[in-house]
Specification:
disordered C terminus; mainly alpha; 6 helices; disordered N terminus
């Protein structure tokens, strides 16, 4: 059961990250799509981190998860709709960077505990 749950969480993050990257790859800003995608990405990340918190006993990894959540929250706050539409290219770069951080955490430095992380589109794109 734990392996299946972890796999589902990773696949959900992959799906949401890929969809968000496709939105920011567009030439013109689509703030309505961005808002929805960031909300779904935040939800998937929150679910993933909550599940990890229940499993991870290592205090250092739990601290990294907390920092990742703060980083994503900061990304959301740093990019209100007016800024997104005003600097679409920079928003795309910021999105790629935050998704790469998530992908890096998912890989667990190459740990076999994270078998699906290599499929995260953000990791390949970064």
């Amino acid at each position: 059961m734990l392996i299946d749950t972890r796999g589902a969480e990773h696949r959900e993050l992959e799906t949401q990250a890929g969809a968000l990257l496709r939105v920011v790859a567009a030439q013109a800003p689509d703030s309505a799509s961005v808002a929805g995608m960031r909300w779904r990405m935040a939800r998937a990340l929150s679910d993933y981190l909550a599940q990890e918190d229940r499993r991870v006993r290592d205090a250092r990894l739990r601290q990294e998860d907390g920092m990742l959540a703060k980083q994503f929250h900061g990304y959301i706050l740093d990019w209100p709709v007016s800024r997104i539409t005003g600097d679409w290219a920079a928003f795309g770069r910021a999105t790629q960077a935050v998704l790469a951080s998530i992908a890096d955490r998912m890989t667990g430095a190459g740990s076999p505990c994270y078998p699906h992380a290599d499929r995260v589109p953000a990791r390949r794109a970064a």
